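Changelog note: in this version the structure field was regenerated for every chain. One regenerated record is shown below for reference.
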Amino acid sequence: MKANALSADEMKSQSVDILDVDIEQFRINNFVKLLGDDLNDNLQQLKASKPADLLEVKTANKWIEQASRRPIPRMLFSEFWFEQELCILFADTNVGKTILAVQIADSISRGQSIPGFKLETKAQKVIYCDFELNDKQFQSRYSRNYEVPYQFSDNFLRVEINPDADFPEDASFEFALSNAIERVITDNGAKIVIIDNITYLRHENERAKDALPLMKHLKRLKSKYNLSLLVLAHTPKRDLTKPLTRNDLQGSKVLMNFCDSSFAIGESSSDSSFRYIKMIKVRSTEHIYDSYNIMVCQITKPDNFLHFNFLHLDSEYKHLKMVTERDREILEEEVRGCILEEPSISAYAIAKRLCPEEKKFSSFKIKILRIYKKIIQDVNLCDEVDSSQQDPFNPEDFNRLNGDEEFPSCTNP
């Protein structure tokens, strides 16, 4: 037994050897685990730093499945503006864009719909970037003679440009303003943003190369922070006898092409205080409020809140300015006066002289041609005009009036 027994030294030596093996194995296993974790972390960082592919491909069913996990967009201003949309509201100057936009912001901040319109969301924060009115003008609109102010919800956050702010010398004003708006969004956690108006974000919007970066920037903000954006824009001087269309939005067509929805405010010829709201572009619903179903409103301020008051639905054509018989008579008298004053004058010269706006010259010249022919054939005028000028048209004038020759720009007398 003694032969088989281990001495204390041997047992001590053996136990030490066994312990040493266990520790070494533990160290190896631990090193492998740490190395694996480190490699995995590096791989994740590499994936995160790698730019995303420009195009993402999935089956149509996968896209629908992915979209089904997100909530259905709710109405913010009836069918005109839904959640998570980049919407453009446009109208001519002094028609009421800011009045309606503030009213929409007030409605969303309170969680209360505007009478005649729908709101499907609860009360929430709204950031209103007001680059049009100063604080005193704002007070005037939303108080009774600068006293008894209207009480807005604390969810209504109005933003003005700080005139004392220092802008980086190496950055443009538009760039600094865009960054400042993004900071306001992140600092306040609002999901509803209204910008009044788009010209402050980018001064030049007439060309596609200027408008495209702006729209990409707005869409990036919308996607990054899950925003609902309402952006106000102008229209150039327009013909009030014609319906509102997407072509009335001032700036490049890129603005209309890249927005999700758009609606416009038109002036009613029936009353100076009447306005109508018309859908221009829509993606989330059918085109409900078209030319034959506009929403007629009246701008009113019964107490301390200037707002749109919904009246009824109507046809846009009933609110357009009509060319009356008296208007035609006045134009005919002007043409007749030009001929009497200068018997040798051509129809083209008359059209150029009387043209109200350069952009209307193409259609205006045709109208003048018809009146000119009528007057020349009028027997009563034959005695007043020299016989050699009874038909002062020549082939060159006729070709020019019918568009066979390019016209110089129209100038008023």
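Spot check on this record: Residues 8-49 form the longest helix (42 residues). Residues 15-21, 387-393, 400-413 have pLDDT under 50 and may be disordered.
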